[in-house]
Amino acid sequence: MSETIFTKIINREIPADIIYEDDLALAFKDINPQAPVHFLVIPKKVIPTINAIEPEDREIVGHLYTVAAKIAQEMEFAEDGYRAVMNCNEHGGQTVYHIHLHVLAGKPMGWPPYTEKLKV
């Protein structure tokens, strides 16, 4: 498998606005944010797609969500809520083939009639 932009970020070959790092994961701000808060949480282990997750990857994948929740608490948007989503393959919107959890916050998100009701 060829090296991705995320591998280069992990290896510090290209810069990123890193907001969290530990032995298993790295989180950094998305370069094309879709919400006032938009960052990615990635595993340091290369797993190309959700379809490639193996049973032994359970801890790593679960850890991505605990990192997202920790950052949400630290950045003080956990109570308001946020979206955490992982895309899979081309039709799912995946553009980098190294799994990554998108975390979006800072505005109401959801189905348009729901968000319209919030404006009333």
UniProtKB/TrEMBL annotation:
UniProt-recorded name of the protein: Histidine triad nucleotide-binding protein
Top-level taxonomic group: Bacteria
GO molecular function, one term: catalytic activity
All residue ranges annotated as the HIT domain in the record: 5-114
InterPro entries linked: Histidine_triad_CS (IPR019808), Histidine_triad_HIT (IPR001310), HIT-like (IPR011146), HIT-like_sf (IPR036265)
Stored Gene3D superfamilies: HIT-like (3.30.428.10)
Position of sequence motif Histidine triad motif: 98-102
SUPFAM superfamilies from the UniProt entry: HIT-like
Residue stretches spanning the membrane: none
Database matches in PANTHER family: HISTIDINE TRIAD HIT PROTEIN
Catalytic machinery residues: H100
